[in-house]
Write a structure and sequence with these properties.
CATH superfamily of the largest domain in chain C: Periplasmic binding protein-like II
Oligomer: heterotrimer
Chains: A mainly alpha (277), B alpha+beta (352), C alpha/beta (346)
Shape of chain A: globular
Radius of gyration of chain C: 22 Å
Number of helices of chain C: 12
CATH superfamily of one domain in chain A: MetI-like
Structural class of chain A: mainly alpha
Largest sheet of chain A: none
Number of domains of chain C: 2
Distance between the termini of chain C: 72 Å
Structural class of chain C: alpha/beta
CATH class of one domain in chain A: Mainly Alpha
């Protein structure tokens, strides 16, 4: 009895301790910094500086727009891809190869992969070269320094997350439910939209939330692929910590970002929950 | 002459090299209650899934009221299915689950819901329309699945071991309810089960399957009294199977000795089996009895099974089981020497 | 009571056991940068130092800012004894009170250093330069036939959409804007003219890391722009068609500086290490490996190395535009903010 209790407290305690030390403590430091001025007095000046300035709202809008477009693109590409892997590929080795191809990039650093996209999407990059060779364009298209370039880079990096989340939920859908639907007279498309898709929705939402959070908080990819011409919120935060050294203002930027992201995700979650019931 | 409701001819299905169904022929009439009975892997579920359209047979045909549906997808077949795990849509309320069928057949939402309400009333779940499947007990879920399957009033309902997840007591009750409902609605049921008692209680006709083949089709009591094959004899109920042959003089030579019996039925083949049900075997502590063939035996086991007693008695190399209901004679104890006896007419002979 | 005496005995024993071993294999920890910078510091300074003194050197790798934050956290009992930090961060380290005075008596080679490379605040010598690097005009020699001569060439029509300059996220970004303001005679109080001109620049990208700049030149995304002599010549040495010039207006430059960490328990060894760094041999070695402009007097390097130094082929340290970092740091927040609003926004 007492050993069980001890074991349980150990099982619960260790992760809690880890959470406290490596998540909550740094978070608290940042939050406290955001509420003080350079000499340590309590103040809301940092937040006022952010929230009362249209510029910050503009950057937030750009950031969330890129996040949203990335998420939508990931969903549109990731869902069919997950479907293909789970439902259509029936030769196991090939499925395994596909999953490995999908996961392996996760082991490479974001920096390397974003540099890779810079090379691919550059003025003389593979994409522009091919388009020019095919005669589709005359002058190289600019990808770097526009939102499209950032979105391409982010989608590539974040796609595995949604495919894995959706793949699991597609695999979890009991085939007898789809058979029941067909048995009751539903054509395949109707079965998909009334049964399969709603049942995958929680997985899809979880994947989408994950992608959205990672996309809005991404730094390396937007920093490299923006060519310094587009500012997303994480870049403002990074600047304050790495080059301006204003940890109070930087802390306030971080907390603002965190709170707004959580609010957005919670709202989306609630909308999803009422639909999925 | 009208076509039968369901007509299956020469149906075969392989999974890889494994034959799941071979050359299956079956007819089901309007309003009939058919049980597909057999051990797991016998092909009964495969047959049901072929009828429903979830599996495509390799060869043969399936006709419903004369129309060939062999190549039709499930959603175009005029039948419904109750799934083993019920397959209720977890994201829909009970009434939406039941209204799903009518909706797919073009009913307005209002009509579909009123049909659903009727079907739910039929299965006694009127108050549960707004609940979700996960909020229901196993028995309630089973009834929702039934309501969902009958709401469209199909001519044919397929049931894939629908009671297997229920506990024994509930299962007995639902068996009777289901039988009544079937009679009331006049829908033909094709009911898959591995529980012979369930099959014998409920079905008008029982289809015994083994190894992808139909072994025997018939009324439950006929199958019990006159099993067509050794498998059926062994599978249905308990049986003493006595290898035997017919002597040139027409009498019977069994593993428990020669019997001066002239069997009415004379199956083909040399290796015959005589089937004797345990309740047809009497224990005779005092020796012979008028009208019975008797052989001397030694009691090996006495097993009390509540309502009755099973006694195993050894005759040479053969063990014969007798079922004694009522008072067990005091002399019948382990090691006792006595006679076992049976009426020659009760012997049922099966050929190869 | 008993416990504490056991403990004391244990501590005594272990100290007695480890003390001699410790003295034999003494070591110091030096904070420096990653990549080829760290390799060069090891080869040019740490290795000769170990050879001469027997004291081994372990590296604590990090950028200047990271090293500074480590020093701030470890204030009082530092694990880093000597630290390299760039100009700009060096001043912040002084303000944070984590660096100690460099004593000319203990570091005799301090007298070898160029006067402008010894940094003083009042009577405290808080840093000494180990070499200069500059931000000059870098260009693709294949696509730019005639070597550019002026920073204003970046605005030429032929270079539209192929120019790169640092963004303020790069350590050179803010000083570069001040440098441009200076050559355009824009008053320091109001830099709006400078930003207006930068806004007119048809840039391919604004790089935030030296690596991003190198990548842009390598891939052909950038054909001309500002880049560090260190990075530019590194590309050229690898056979890429890259040229580097110091334009007629000069080049903004900064340096990598050595600091004695305040409160180090190995002060003597640390001073010896700094002394080693200020030898002509070490300085020449850094010049050859990184093309850092020597901060030590009378260093001779090969002609091919000389032309790659931050001041260009014929220059000297006098041609470098070295800015007062205290002044830059004061302007930093405002310049970053204005840049964000004016430039890094569509």
């Amino acid at each position: 009895m007492s050993t069980t209790a001890r074991r349980v407290s150990l099982l619960v305690g260790l992760p809690s301790l880890f959470f406290l030390a490596f998540f909550l403590a740094p978070m608290t430091v940042v939050a406290l910094a955001s509420l003080t001025d350079a000499s340590g007095n309590l103040t809301f000046v940092n937040y006022a500086r952010i929230l009362l300035d249209q510029y910050h709202w503009d950057v937030l809008w750009v950031t969330f727009r890129i996040g949203a477009i990335t998420t939508i693109a990931c969903v549109l590409i990731g869902y069919p891809l997950a479907w293909y892997l789970v439902r259509i590929v029936d030769w196991r080795p090939w499925r395994r190869v596909c999953v490995i191809l999908l996961i392996v990039p996760l082991f490479t650093s974001n920096i390397v992969r974003s540099f890779g996209w810079m090379v691919l999407l550059g003025r003389n990059g593979l994409v522009n070269d091919s388009l020019q060779t095919l005669g589709l364009i005359e002058r190289p298209i600019r990808f770097i320094g526009i939102e499209l370039g950032i979105v391409i880079g982010l989608v590539y990096i974040l796609l595995p997350f949604i495919v894995l989340a959706v793949g699991n939920s597609v695999a979890d859908v009991d085939p007898s439910l789809e058979q029941a639907s067909a048995d009751l007279g539903a054509r395949p498309a109707t079965t998909f939209w009334t049964v399969t898709f709603p049942l995958c929705l929680p997985g899809l939402m979880a994947g989408a939330v994950m992608v959205f959070m990672l996309a809005v908080s991404a730094y390396v990819t937007p920093a490299l692929l923006s060519g310094g011409r587009i500012t997303v919120f994480s870049m403002l935060i990074f600047q304050q910590y790495s080059s301006v050294f204003d940890f109070n203002y930087g802390g306030a930027l971080s907390i603002t970002m965190l709170v707004l992201t959580l609010v957005l995700v919670a709202t989306a979650g609630r909308v999803g929950a009422t639909k999925g019931a | 002459m009208t076509a039968p409701l369901l007509n299956i001819t020469k149906l075969s299905k392989h999974f890889g090299r494994q034959a799941a169904l071979s050359d299956v022929n079956l007819e089901v009439e309007q309003g009939e209650f058919i049980a597909l009975l057999g051990p797991s892997g016998c092909g009964k579920t495969t047959l049901l899934r072929c009828i429903a359209g979830f599996l495509k047979p390799d060869s043969g045909s399936i006709r419903i009221t004369g129309e060939d549906v062999t190549r039709l997808p499930p959603y175009l077949r005029p039948l419904n299915t109750v799934f083993q795990n019920y397959a209720l849509f977890p994201h829909m309320s009970v009434e939406d689950n039941v209204a799903y069928g009518p909706r797919r057949r073009g009913a307005t939402k209002k009509d579909a819901l009123s049909q659903a309400a009727d079907a739910l009333e039929l299965v006694g779940l009127s108050g549960f329309a707004g609940r979700f499947p996960r909020q229901l007990s196993g028995g309630q879920q089973q009834r929702v699945a039934l309501a969902r399957a009958i709401v469209n009033r199909p001519k044919l309902l397929l049931l894939d071991e629908p009671l297997s997840a229920l506990d024994l007591k509930l299962r007995k009750r639902v068996q009777i309810e289901l039988k009544h409902l079937q009679e009331k609605l006049g829908i033909a049921f094709v009911f898959v089960t591995h529980d012979q008692e369930e099959a014998l209680t409920m079905a008008d006709r029982v289809v015994v399957m083994s190894g992808g083949r139909i072994e025997q089709v018939g009324r439950g009591e006929d199958i019990y009294r006159a099993p067509a094959t050794r498998f059926v004899a062994d599978f249905i109920g308990e049986a003493n199977l006595l290898p035997c042959s017919i002597l040139p003089d027409g009498s019977l030579m069994t593993s428990v000795g020669a019997l001066s019996v002239r069997p009415k039925l004379r199956p083909k083949g040399d290796n015959l089996v005589a089937v004797l049900r345990p309740e047809q075997v009497s224990l005779l502590p005092d020796g012979a009895m008028e009208g019975l063939s008797t052989v001397p035996a030694v009691v090996e086991d006495v097993i009390h099974v509540g309502s009755h007693v099973m006694v195993n008695a050894r005759v040479g190399d053969t063990v014969i089981t007798s079922r004694v209901s009522g008072q067990l004679p005091a002399q019948v104890v382990k090691g006792a020497r006595l006679h076992v006896g049976f009426r020659p007419d009760d012997l049922h002979l099966i050929g190869d | 009571m008993k416990h504490s005496s056991y403990l004391a005995a244990f501590v005594l024993c272990s100290t007695a056991l480890t003390q001699p071993a410790y003295a034999q294999s003494q070591s110091i920890t030096v904070g420096w940068y990653g990549g080829n910078w760290g390799d060069a510091f090891r080869a040019c300074v740490a290795e000769p130092f170990t050879k001469a003194t027997g004291i081994s050197v372990s590296a604590e790798i990090g950028t200047s800012t990271v090293t500074l934050s480590k020093l701030q956290q470890q204030k009082g009992s530092p694990t880093i004894d000597v630290a390299w930090m760039d100009g700009g961060i060096s001043e912040l380290a002084l303000a944070a009170d984590v660096v100690d005075n460099l004593d000319a008596g203990a570091i005799s080679n301090l007298s070898n250093a160029l006067p402008e490379s010894v940094y003083k605040s009042g009577s405290t010598t808080y840093a000494v330069s180990t070499g200069y690097y500059s931000l000059g005009l870098t260009y693709n020699t294949k696509e730019v036939k005639e070597a550019p001569t002026s920073w204003n060439d970046l605005w030429k029509k032929e270079f539209e959409d192929t120019v790169t300059i640092p963004s303020p996220s790069n350590s050179a970004g803010v000083p570069f804007i001040m440098f441009l303001s200076q050559i355009w005679s824009v008053p320091e109080g109001d830099l709006s003219e400078t930003f207006k001109k930068i806004k007119d620049l048809k840039a391919a990208l604004f790089f935030d890391s030296s690596g991003a700049a190198t990548n842009a030149f390598q891939s052909g995304e950038a054909v001309i722009g500002a880049h560090f002599n260190v990075g530019a010549w590194d590309m050229a040495d690898k056979g890429l068609p890259i040229g580097f010039v110091v334009p007629k207006e000069g080049a903004w430059a900064t340096d990598a500086r050595l600091h004695l960490v305040k409160g180090t328990s190995k002060k003597e060894a640390a001073q010896k290490f700094i002394n080693q760094a200020l030898t002509p041999e070490s300085s020449a070695c850094l010049a050859e490996k990184l093309y850092l402009g020597p901060s030590v007097k009378g260093v001779q390097v090969k002609a091919d190395v000389a032309r790659k130094l931050p001041w260009g082929e014929k220059g000297s340290v006098k041609d470098l535009k070295l800015f007062d970092w205290v002044n830059i740091n004061e302007q930093r927040s405002k310049i970053v903010d204005t840049w964000n609003r004016e430039i890094a926004r569509k």
